[in-house]
Write a structure and sequence with these properties.
The complex is a heterodimer of chains A (about 500) and B (about 625).
Chain A: H1 6-24, H2 26-50, E1 55-59, E2 68-72, H3 74-89, H4 100-117, H5 121-139, H6 145-176, H7 181-186, H8 194-207, H9 220-226, H10 229-254, H11 260-281, H12 285-304, H13 308-332, H14 346-349, H15 351-365, H16 371-385, H17 389-417, H18 432-450, H19 452-466, H20 469-479, H21 485-488
Antiparallel strand pairs in A: 1-2
Helix pairs in contact in A: 1-2, 1-4, 2-3, 2-4, 3-4, 4-5, 5-6, 5-10, 6-8, 6-9, 8-10, 9-12, 10-12, 10-13, 11-12, 11-17, 12-13, 12-17, 13-15, 13-16, 13-18, 13-19, 15-17, 15-18
Chain B: H1 3-20, H2 27-44, E1 55-63, E2 66-72, H3 74-104, H4 109-127, H5 132-151, H6 156-186, H7 191-197, H8 203-221, H9 228-235, H10 239-249, H11 251-272, H12 282-303, H13 307-328, H14 331-362, H15 378-392, H16 398-412, H17 416-441, H18 457-475, H19 478-490, E3 498-499, E4 502-503, E5 510-511, H20 512-532, E6 544-546, E7 549-551, H21 565-571, H22 578-602, H23 606-622
Antiparallel strand pairs in B: 1-2, 3-4, 4-5, 6-7
Helix pairs in contact in B: 1-2, 1-4, 2-3, 2-4, 3-4, 3-10, 3-14, 3-18, 3-19, 4-5, 5-6, 6-8, 6-9, 7-11, 8-11, 9-13, 10-14, 11-13, 12-13, 12-17, 13-14, 13-16, 13-17, 14-15, 14-16, 14-18, 14-19, 15-17, 15-18, 16-18
The chains are: A mainly alpha (about 500), B mainly alpha (about 625).
């Protein structure tokens, strides 16, 4: 059987070797990335399909809680599959400027796989740092002043966040004496106090910088507005979800029954309000999507804050839907930059692009029968089921936000189809690659529309497993396997 | 495969063919043909209209553990008949000469036909919904499909469509919240489960659910205070599309209210709930909303100077009659309300088509730029005449019967104030429809319209068929009352005892055959007197004199601008646009809030926010 550790080792190795390979043969270096990503897909998918129950892998020869451990359940493996798939989709195939971006993307792939799979708080932190470094480089890869300024802002706030997260992790260590998530889960009672909750708050806000959590997301609009659409798609679609998942893992194992839920709920509500309101007023498409993704992440956070399986189910549904839709929308901003009013008549120049825009917008709003509706339905029933006035408030805000969202998205759609002005000479045509990426995501959306029931069942199964705290603890602490890493090598 | 499957398949086929055949020049006729096929299939299901068994669709889904199924009962059949009928009228009207001209002006008749077909499919799905989830899906499909129909004209129509979709989404979200609450209470979306649980719900739950659904579904009917979107959005749709929307679209809201509030939650519960510090029950409150929705839009219609807007505003007002009748919950009222859905659709479609015919020839629907067209377009005039008699609720047209039933029920059930409110509404209706026909067809002919001819046959036939229906169902209301009676039974309401000519009961009888006979007898006497006198001399329409002087055609001696100046002098100050003000201030609030929200992202203190956030969260846990 393949070893999932390759999913981290391989891309990191490839990232560091890429300059060497590039010196040898530029052509070969361009092949390395896609090949590595395909291999990652293969490993992770094999695990995802054949795994019957969660497995913990101990690396380095020590069993947890002492050793470094990976937690392989369906959720982490699903993310491990999605990461290389997404990167393959958004890979710079036409890039001829050297290997930097490729190397950074591979670094990102390895770090994010590590974050998804790791069952250890400190490792999560390390991979998070690695991921940050890669994302700074990617955000600045446009090479212009605005992008550098935005990235600098991103860097400062992300750095501060990292310090906070590290403080939080330190606090957890002082309380429990361990950083293994399962072990922390076992000792969760020791964290249900002021220090423990403060640690959670520090970690949420620290890691939340990447998860676009309100109010530590000040970097979002500028970075997404200046970065390449591919990079914005990656950051908004994938990276933010990984950060959310890290928080959710910690929440499930250690803080599921505490006030921590209400912190997430409040931050989520504020995120929805701020994101959607700002998006309503945004003047250009990129910023509008940036703000809208802040709002959407707020919804995801609210969904995850619903107690129990229902919350995990709703959260995953909202999260995966956003992961599918937002990258596609960001890809469409290529050549649709500038103010929204200049997009008049763009549908005539790029009919497929406009049709895809409408498809994704409708799904994002949650118009039945698109998948976004089902995600929203799961979330709405979950919120009512939580049976708490704060959750009902969240429901009201979610529904109001949907109205605002419908307003600004459809306003854009109508603008696209309005008859063009004579004097608008700007080309609004999409490149073939952009269109094929968006279309591919569109096809996935349509397929999932027709297979909602099996998808829903699978997702529920994943959610039930991921929200099962004792399963998580037992998997790691009693059944951990030491993989024979050397043998394979 | 059941008949319902066939119906939905043909409808889907219509959508696909019209969607694919955008460039085909005779696409309109294909659409008309397919809609006729739909109508025939529906008529084959005609047993439903006479108390037949419920027809189930043989397909069904289970999504996320929730079954979704579709079935047709007498109520669905009744509404579906009106839907397909009005779509057919619109589609046939657009298929021939109208479509050719529309294409010449840069429009796309294929897109119009496609939108109509799509709306029909969505509506048929909504009407067949067998559980709350499929109801919601159908509801949203209808909402978004009608957006397409509203925006295809482009320009200002897009703005109005945008406004519509904001209202519609708000309504849909209210419905979604209601559905979530029901799911929490019953654990499913099935109708039966809700009906079973409803009697055990407490007052708060009933009130919450009722208001959420009434708000959500009422928006589509344009009930006050959510009426602002409708008239503009409907009026800017291309002609036949307006006729279709005006005839049936907003009735979908009524259908949903009927199913969810009246049938499932149960009107009886609403009557029991008293509103504190008032004499009203919850049901009375809803009735008053309906009554105000009659009066205010009707008097707004009176002020319109655009024929399409005038009619569209009446559409909202007439919806109030239907709702008020159904909320009375006696055989008369509910029969009147349901019958008015049919009647309104027929005369409203006829009226919109006749206005479209006028626009086709004159290029305008501005009531201040028309007049005297009666001799030029006599058939269109006849259609409009029949239509406005129906709309005003005057015998012998069908609108009279349904309104009579509603009035009768209000009197029988002892609701005099609501009765007065409805009568005030009717007064406004009569005044404004007179303005409509006077400014269009009567009065002074404009010079530029001197050489106008009647519209081609492809347009007159649909109009004349509709007018014939308006008259026949007025002359023999029993035809429609049969279907209405079955629908009442399907809703679990007492059935109205009726005959072919009307109602036969101790509480009030109406025999339209007799009424019409007397009326036409009177006309006959009048005609006899008229034609037995001296032969009248026919003069040209532009051959006019005043005070012994010849009036040249460019002198405007016949006023149409500022119509009803005297009346407006008295009631003009009551038009304050308060709702418009309310709407615009709401938009300003959202706008300034979002400005504030953006400020946070515009200033360069992200690190500061982070520290503030962490302080607050620590305080949240520790403080």
């Amino acid at each position: 059987m393949n070893n999932i550790a390759f999913n981290i080792a391989l891309p990191l190795l490839a990232a560091f070797l890429l300059p060497v390979i590039h010196n040898g043969s530029a052509k070969a270096s361009r092949l390395v990335g896609p090949f590595v990503l395909l291999a990652m897909c293969w490993f992770a998918a094999a695990y995802f399909i054949f795994i019957e129950h969660p497995v913990a892998l101990a690396l380095g020869g020590f069993l947890p809680p002492l050793g470094i451990s990976f937690h392989l359940d369906q959720l982490s493996l699903l993310m491990a599959v999605i990461i290389p798939l997404m990167l393959l989709l958004l890979w710079p195939y036409t890039n001829r400027e050297g290997f930097r971006e490729e190397a950074l993307l591979l670094l990102l792939a390895g770090a994010s796989s590590g974050m998804a799979l790791s069952g250890d708080l400190f490792n999560i932190y390390v991979f998070y740092e690695l991921l940050s470094v890669a994302s700074f480089g990617l955000a600045a890869s446009t090479h212009n002043g605005a992008a550098f300024a935005a990235t600098f802002r991103y860097l400062v706030i992300s750095g501060l966040g990292t310090v906070l997260a590290l403080t939080g992790i330190g606090l957890i260590y002082t309380q429990t004496g361990t950083l293994n998530l399962a072990h922390i889960g076992q000792l969760a009672a020791q964290l249900d106090n002021n220090v423990g909750l403060a640690a959670f708050a520090l970690i949420v806000l620290g890691i939340g910088v990447k998860a676009e959590i309100f109010p530590v997301n000040g970097w979002v609009p500028e970075v997404y507005a200046t970065a390449k659409p591919r990079i914005s798609a990656l950051l908004a679609g994938l990276i933010s979800k990984l950060a959310v998942l890290a928080i959710v893992r910690l929440l499930v194992v250690a803080y599921a029954d505490t006030d921590a839920l209400s912190l997430l709920l409040v931050l989520g509500i504020l995120g929805i309000i701020w994101g959607e309101l700002s998006a309503w007023r945004a003047k250009d498409l990129k910023r509008m999507f940036a703000f809208s993704s802040i709002g959407q992440l707020g919804m995801v956070l609210v969904a995850f804050s619903i107690p129990g399986e229902a919350g995990m189910f709703a959260g995953l549904a909202m999260m995966l839907h956003h992961l599918l839709v937002k990258p596609a929308l960001f890809m469409l901003t290529e050549n649709w930059s500038g103010s929204i009013s200049s997009l008049t008549g763009a549908a005539r120049q790029s009919p497929l692009g406009a049709a895809l825009f409408i498809l994704f917008a409708l799904s994002l709003i949650g118009v039945p029968p698109f998948p976004g509706f089902w995600a929203k339905l799961i979330m709405v029933t979950g919120l009512v089921g939580a049976d708490d006035s704060l959750y009902l408030l969240a429901l009201g805000i979610l529904l109001t936000a949907t109205v605002i969202e419908a307003n600004y998205l459809i306003r854009c759609a109508i603008q696209l189809y309005a008859p063009a002005d004579e004097n608008s000479s700007q080309s609004a045509k999409h490149g073939r690659l952009t269109l094929s990426i968006s279309s591919a995501l569109g096809v996935v959306l349509i397929i999932s529309l027709f297979s909602i029931t099996p998808l829903g069942n699978k997702l529920y199964q994943i959610a039930a497993e991921a929200s099962n705290r004792s399963l998580y603890i037992n998997t790691t602490l009693s059944n951990a396997q030491v993989p024979a890493l050397r043998k394979i090598q | 495969m059941s008949m319902l499957d066939t119906l939905l398949l043909i409808s889907l086929l219509t959508v696909l063919l019209t969607g694919l055949g955008q460039r085909v020049t005779f696409i309109g006729w294909i659409a008309t043909l397919l809609l006729t096929a739909q109508l025939l299939t529906l008529l084959l299901m005609g047993k439903l209209g006479y108390g037949g068994e419920i027809i189930d669709a043989s397909f069904g889904f289970s999504i996320l553990g929730q079954p979704l199924n579709w079935r047709y009962d007498a109520l669905s059949w009744f509404f579906a008949l009106i839907t397909i009928g009005s779509a057919l009228a619109g589609s046939a009207f657009a298929a021939g000469a109208w479509g050719d001209q529309y294409r010449k002006e840069g429009g796309n008749p294929g897109l119009l036909q496609f939108s109509i077909a799509l709306n029909v499919l969505a509506m048929l799905l909504l009407l067949g919904s067998g559980d709350l989830l499929s109801l919601f899906i159908g509801w949203e499909l209808v909402s978004w499909a009608s957006l397409l129909l509203m925006v295809i004209a482009g320009g200002r129509a897009s703005e109005f469509g945008m406004r519509y979709i904001v209202y519609a989404t708000a309504g849909a979200m209210a419905v979604l919240a209601g559905l979530a609450i029901i799911f929490q209470l019953t654990g499913s979306f099935a109708y039966d489960d809700l009906a079973a649980v409803a009697p055990a719900l407490n007052t708060l739950q009933i009130v919450t659910l009722t208001l959420l659904f009434f708000f959500g579904f009422g928006i589509k009917m344009g009930l006050l205070p959510f009426h602002l979107w409708q008239a503009d959005a409907y009026a800017e749709t291309p002609g036949p599309g307006t006729a279709f929307l005006g005839a049936i679209s907003s009735r979908m809201g009524l259908y949903a209210i009927l199913v969810v509030i009246i049938q499932l939650i149960g009107l009886v519960r609403l009557i029991e709930i008293e509103i504190p510090y008032s004499f009203l029950s919850l049901r009375d409150l809803l009735m008053w909303v309906a009554a105000i929705s009659i009066i205010i839009p009707t008097f707004i219609a009176l002020r319109q100077s655009d024929a399409r807007r005038l009619l569209a505003w009446h559409g909202i007002g007439q919806g109030g009659y239907m709702l008020i009748g159904l909320l009375v919950l006696d055989p008369y009222g509910s029969a009147g309300g349901l019958m008015h859905v049919f009647n309104h659709a027929t005369y409203q479609a006829a009226l919109f088509l006749s206005v479209s015919a006028v626009i086709y020839r004159t290029r305008t629907s501005d009531l201040n730029r028309l007049g005297g067209l009666v001799t030029r377009m006599p058939l269109s005039f006849l259609v409009m005449l029949i239509g406005i008699i129906g709309l005003a609720g005057i015998p012998p047209m069908n609108g009279f019967v349904s309104k009579w039933l509603v009035y009768r029920s209000l009197i029988i059930e002892g609701m005099p104030l609501l009765f007065v409110a409805s009568v005030i509404g009717t007064l406004g209706t009569i005044l404004s429809v007179y303005k409509l026909i006077h400014n269009t067809f009567l009065g002074q002919l404009r010079l530029e319209h001197e050489h106008i001819r009647e519209v081609p046959l492809s347009m007159t036939i649909p109009m004349l068929v509709l007018s014939a229906i308006v008259f026949i169902t007025g002359f023999m209301p029993g035809l429609v009352l049969d279907w209405v009676g079955s629908a009442q039974v399907a809703l679990g309401m007492p059935q109205l005892a009726h005959t072919l000519g009307g109602v036969e009961s101790t509480q009030g009888s109406l025999d339209m055959i007799w009424v019409c006979s007397v009326l036409f007898g009177g006309f006959a006497v009048g005609a006899l007197l008229f034609y037995s006198g001296n032969k009248a001399k026919r003069v040209h329409q532009l051959d006019n004199y005043a005070g012994g002087h010849f009036l040249t055609a460019d002198v405007r001696y016949h006023y149409s601008d500022n119509f009803y100046a005297g009346l407006m002098h008295h009631i003009g100050s009551w038009y304050r646009g308060s709702f418009l003000w309310l709407e615009s201030s709401l938009i300003s609030v959202v706008s300034s809030l979002s400005g504030g929200a953006q400020l946070l992202y515009n200033s360069f203190h992200p690190a500061l926010y982070l520290l503030m956030a962490i302080t607050l969260s620590l305080y949240f846990f520790i403080g």
